[in-house]
From TrEMBL:
<keyword id="KW-0274">FAD</keyword>
<keyword id="KW-0521">NADP</keyword>
<dbReference type="InterPro" id="IPR050346">
    <property type="entry name" value="FMO-like"/>
</dbReference>
<dbReference type="InterPro" id="IPR020946">
    <property type="entry name" value="Flavin_mOase-like"/>
</dbReference>
<dbReference type="Pfam" id="PF00743">
    <property type="entry name" value="FMO-like"/>
</dbReference>
<dbReference type="InterPro" id="IPR000960">
    <property type="entry name" value="Flavin_mOase"/>
</dbReference>
<dbReference type="GO" id="GO:0050661">
    <property type="term" value="F:NADP binding"/>
</dbReference>
<keyword id="KW-0285">Flavoprotein</keyword>
<dbReference type="GO" id="GO:0050660">
    <property type="term" value="F:flavin adenine dinucleotide binding"/>
</dbReference>
<dbReference type="GO" id="GO:0004499">
    <property type="term" value="F:N,N-dimethylaniline monooxygenase activity"/>
</dbReference>
<keyword id="KW-0560">Oxidoreductase</keyword>
<keyword id="KW-0503">Monooxygenase</keyword>
<dbReference type="InterPro" id="IPR036188">
    <property type="entry name" value="FAD/NAD-bd_sf"/>
</dbReference>
<protein>
    <recommendedName>
        <fullName>Flavin-containing monooxygenase</fullName>
        <ecNumber>1.-.-.-</ecNumber>
    </recommendedName>
</protein>
<comment type="similarity">
    <text>Belongs to the FMO family.</text>
</comment>
Length: 440
C-alpha cells in the first residue's frame, strides 16, 4: 500500500550548473518519443513506466480488476488490428519495416515496432520499468517528483527542470449515466475490459457507441453472439450490411429490467451491455498546485494543447484526438523542446491565455458547447501542424502522410469489411501507392 511506503525527504542534491533534467511520465508511444527527442536535444532525461515493459496501451493482458478499487491499465483485446495503416503510424525519423506486407497490422506488431524504436535509439538505459510517478509538485525553480519503485517498495523524491506528461488516456472508462442502469439485471461492462468475443457466445448483446472501437468490437462480437444491437447517434448510418445478426438502434432512453427502451420508441431485451464510450483524461499524480484542471476532458489552461500555462516547464503530449497519433506526439515534443531549451521564447502568460480563449471561443461558435470536444481536431489538425511548425521553426509532417491519412478517413465506419485489405506504399514525400496504383 502506498500509505506504508518509506518516504525520504531530502534536499535538492543537484548543483546549479548541472545538466538540465527531464522527467517523462510513461513509456508508451508518446513517452518514448519525448524521451528520445529530449536526449537528442542534449538534455538528461528519464522515462518512468509503472509496467513491466514499454509499449503502453499496445500491451495485451488478460488482467481483470480484482476488486472495485483495482485498476487495469491495458485496453487491448484479442485479434485487434489497427484502424490506421502502418505507413502513418511510424515516427518521422523511424518508419515500420517495409518487409511487413500488410498496412493494417496487429497490436503485437505495433508493440514490436515500439521495442525496435527504443532499441534503435538506445533508450533502454534511460527507462525505469516498474517505477510509478505518484506525485508531481512544482517548486520555486524545478519539479519535485516522487517515484514509487515497485521493485523495492520505496518512494523517493527526484528533482527535474521539465516534465512531460505521457501517461496515456485509456485507463479510466467514461461511463455515461443512463436512466435505469441500476434496474438492469444483465451484465454491464466498458470496452476497457473487453478481451475475447467467446464470452458472448449465443447471447444477445447491446453495444453502445460507434466510434472505431465500437465498430470493431461489434464486428468481433457478432461472430459469437446470437444477436448484437449497435446503439449510436451518428448522423450517417454505418455500413453493417455484412453483419447479418447486427441491428442498429438509436440512443438508449432508459434501461429496463431485461433490456432497454430506445429514443425512437422501440425496445429490446439482451444479456450484456458494452459501453464503447471512450475514456477520461486523468492525471492522478499531479498535485493541485501544478495549476491544471480537467473538466469533462477539457484539460486547461494549456497553450497550443500541450504547454501548461501556469507552469510552462510542463507539457502534456497526446491530448488532441482525431489526429495522426504518432506524428502529432513527435511534433508536440519537438515544438515544446524549442522552448524548454531556450531556442524559442514563450509568449507572456496573458498572451497565451488570450490565444487559448480565442481558439476555444471559435470552437464553441462552430457548434454545440461541449468541453469533451475541446481537444478534438479532425480537419483542424492540418492548421494545427502548420502553426506548430511555423512558431517553433521545426519540420512539418510530410504532405504524403497528410494525404494518406485523408484517404483513410472514416473507413472504419463505411468500409469496415474491406478497408483493412488495402495496402499502401509511400513513394516519396508527396506521393503514395494504394494497392499498387498511384493516388493523388
Amino acid at each position: 500500500m502506498r500509505e506504508t511506503l518509506l518516504v525520504k525527504m531530502i534536499k535538492n542534491p543537484n548543483p546549479v550548473d548541472r545538466k538540465r533534467r527531464v522527467c517523462v511520465i510513461g513509456a508508451g508511444t508518446a513517452g518514448l518519443c519525448a524521451l528520445k527527442n529530449s536526449l537528442e536535444a542534449g538534455l538528461e532525461a528519464v522515462a518512468y513506466e509503472r509496467g513491466r515493459e514499454i509499449g503502453g496501451t499496445w500491451i495485451f493482458s488478460e488482467e481483470m480488476p480484482k476488486n472495485d478499487y483495482d485498476e487495469v491499465h491495458s485496453s487491448m483485446y484479442e485479434g485487434l488490428r489497427t484502424n490506421l495503416p502502418k505507413e502513418v503510424m511510424g515516427y518521422p525519423d523511424y518508419a515500420y519495416d517495409n518487409d511487413i506486407e500488410d498496412s493494417f497490422i496487429t497490436s503485437h506488431q505495433v508493440l514490436n515496432f515500439l521495442r525496435s524504436y527504443a532499441e534503435h535509439f538506445k533508450l533502454g538505459p534511460h527507462i525505469k520499468l516498474q517505477h510509478e510517478v505518484i506525485r508531481v509538485r512544482p517548486r520555486l525553480d524545478d519539479w519535485e517528483v516522487y517515484i514509487w519503485d515497485h521493485n523495492t517498495n520505496t518512494c523517493d523524491p527526484v528533482y527535474y527542470d521539465f516534465v512531460y506528461v505521457c501517461n496515456g488516456h485509456y485507463t479510466e472508462p467514461d461511463m455515461p449515466d443512463v436512466e435505469g442502469m441500476d434496474l438492469y439485471e444483465g451484465k454491464l461492462m466498458h470496452s476497457h475490459l473487453y478481451r475475447t468475443a467467446d464470452k458472448f457466445k449465443d447471447d444477445k448483446v447491446l453495444i453502445i457507441g460507434a466510434g472505431p472501437s465500437g465498430m470493431d468490437i461489434t464486428n468481433h462480437v457478432r461472430v459469437e453472439a446470437k444477436h448484437v444491437y449497435l446503439s449510436h447517434h451518428l448522423a450517417t448510418t454505418p455500413n453493417t450490411a455484412f453483419m447479418g445478426n447486427v441491428t442498429q438502434k438509436t440512443d438508449v432512453e432508459r434501461f429496463t429490467k431485461n433490456g432497454a427502451l430506445f429514443k425512437d420508441g422501440s425496445s429490446e431485451s439482451f444479456d450484456h451491455v458494452m459501453f464503447c464510450t471512450g475514456y477520461k483524461y486523468t492525471f492522478p499524480c499531479l498535485s493541485t498546485d501544478v495549476g491544471i484542471q480537467v473538466i469533462d476532458n477539457f484539460v486547461q489552461p494549456l497553450w497550443k494543447h500541450c504547454i501548461n500555462i501556469n507552469n510552462p516547464t510542463m507539457a502534456f503530449i497526446g491530448l488532441p484526438f482525431n489526429v495522426i497519433p504518432t506524428h502529432i506526439f513527435d511534433m508536440q515534443v519537438r515544438f515544446t523542446l524549442k522552448f524548454f531549451t531556450g531556442q524559442r521564447e514563450l509568449p507572456p502568460r496573458e498572451q497565451m491565455i488570450a490565444e487559448l480563449e480565442k481558439e476555444i471561443g471559435q470552437r464553441w461558435d462552430c457548434g454545440v458547447y461541449n468541453r469533451k470536444k475541446a481537444h478534438q481536431m479532425g480537419e483542424r489538425q492540418f492548421d494545427y501542424y502548420n502553426e506548430l511548425a511555423r512558431m517553433a521553426g521545426i519540420d512539418n509532417i510530410k504532405p504524403v502522410i497528410l494525404k494518406l491519412m485523408k484517404d483513410c478517413g472514416k473507413k472504419y465506419i463505411f468500409e469496415l469489411d474491406t478497408y483493412r485489405t488495402n495496402r499502401y506504399t509511400i513513394v516519396d514525400d508527396e506521393n503514395f501507392l494504394k494497392n499498387g496504383k498511384i493516388t493523388n
